[in-house]
Amino acid sequence: MASDAGLAAALRRLASTPHLLVAVDFDGTLAPLVERAEDARALPASAQALRALAGLPGTTTALISGRALDSLRAVADPPARTMLIGSHGAETWTGPDRAPLTLTTGQEELLARAVGVVERTVAAHEGTRIEFKPAGVVLHTRTAADDVAAAAVTAARTELQRLGDLSITDGKRVLEIAVVKADKGQGLALLREATGATGVLFAGDDVTDEDAHRTLGPADVGIRIGPGETAAPFTVATPEDFADVLQALVDLREAGARG
Ligand SMILES: [Mg+2]
């Protein structure tokens, strides 16, 4: 990280913004990717840096994840005042008075049919798994053989497309199906409005994070973790490298608060 002079300069500028929002993805960004989603944990250095940022004046921390909120809370153990966006923006938690997500009858029926498709797909493709979300369902193929994974995704997608108005998104060895149209860009916009942030750090490692990267402006800093097409101006190779970025931001903002 230190070798990237452009990123270092951008972090220095961001650290002096009046209200800083640090909104980051969890899996593959704070936490290394693992085979079983329930085993994911933030790197200790990243968790510590996020806690430090959450405690600084004029600074709000947030997690923006594809996970359902319950799953995100279970693995991420976020600092107390951290705002949470789950299910790629379909679920939001910005404080205790926020109403939970509710589906219309039509959305509930559509979700039930989508769940049926994924259940049949998982039964027919060894090593694939289903995950239930409040507004969607996920086909996980990370633990399946490559050819089985590809066949499962193709089979599920073909059937799902016949069901109607679903949002279907490919991720890293996952097929995400949602009945509420939402993306991480909308999630980040909601956080920006709720906090009145004057500068944002956003970071993510996957295709769905690009929706948020595309909303960033000149006062913000966007970082892509790992390889892949990205709208982010900066890339770091690994979650370990991103922990260094977070710590650098802590140091810069603490120095600014003292000075
Ligand atoms: Mg991720």
What descriptors fit this protein?
single chain, alpha/beta, Rossmann fold, binds magnesium ion
Hetero groups in this structure are: magnesium ion
Range of helix content: 25-40%
The SSE order reads: HEHEHEEHEEHEEHEHEEH
The CATH superfamily title of the largest domain = HAD superfamily/HAD-like
Biggest β-sheet strands, sense, barrel: 7 strands, mixed
> What does the overall shape look like?
globular
What's the Cα radius of gyration?
19 Å
CATH domain class name of the largest domain: Alpha Beta
Question: How much strand?
Answer: 15-25%
> How is the largest sheet built, in terms of strand order?
4-3-2-1-9-10-11
At CATH's second level, what is the architecture of the largest domain?
A: 3-Layer(aba) Sandwich
Number of strands: 11
Report how far apart the termini are.
Answer: 24 Å
Number of domains: 2
The low-pLDDT segments are none
